[in-house]
Write a structure and sequence with these properties.
By secondary structure, this protein is of the alpha/beta class. The chain contains 5 helices and 9 strands. α3 links the parallel β4 and β5. InterPro entries: Redoxin (IPR013740), Thioredoxin-like_sf (IPR036249), Thioredoxin_domain (IPR013766). This is Redoxin family protein.
Length: 179
């Protein structure tokens, strides 16, 4: 039996800093370029064609997310060499960081899987996770999955974030009722 520590909606997002292929450090949950929120998308790695498809699809929503002040950052446990190879198949302009450790995966409350073979990958990897962190560094939206087939529909997600970001709606962080 495995144990995962799920991040709580409304809780602080952990400070994890990783590098992109240009050597720039990115702290997960810290928006860039004038954005006030950040969407952190954890993907399984270069071995996952569904991840590649999802991330390429996310690129089509980058402008709509920027319009509502949401930055995008993608992260995996892949190595630098694996990310370099994966980037050759990607059509995205948002940053990718690499080297998420198994300890960090578990800190984020992600499900962690073993590779089925060496052809898949050479390390434990995180199953998909998506976090939206607000300007206070608080988890506004969290979605984690234990397989690549269960992810939020991007159009629905962007529509929802647009609703949440509209101050006229005064929409609170959901899922915070005490036990």
């Amino acid at each position: 039996m495995s144990y995962t520590n799920k991040l709580q909606a409304g809780g602080a997002f952990p400070a994890i800093t990783l590098s992109d292929l240009d050597g720039n450090a990115h702290t997960l949950g810290k928006p860039r370029e004038g954005a006030t929120w950040q969407m952190v998308v954890v993907y399984r790695g270069r071995h996952c064609p569904l991840c590649t498809k999802y991330l390429n699809q996310l690129e089509t929503f980058k402008s709509a997310l920027a319009d509502i002040g949401v930055d995008i950052l993608a992260v995996s446990g892949d190595s630098q060499a694996q990310l370099e190879e994966h980037q050759s198949r990607m059509e995205v302009s948002f940053p990718f960081v690499y080297g998420l450790s198994e300890v960090q995966m578990r800190e984020l409350g992600l499900y962690v899987s073993l590779p089925r073979s060496e052809q898949e990958t050479d390390h434990h990897f995180a199953e998909p996770g998506l976090f939206v962190i607000n300007e206070q560094g608080t988890v506004q939206v969290v979605d984690i999955a234990n397989n690549p087939f269960s992810r939020p529909d991007l159009q629905t997600l962007v529509n929802g974030l647009t609703w949440i970001r509209n101050p006229d709606n005064n929409y609170p962080i959901r899922g915070t009722a005490p036990y």
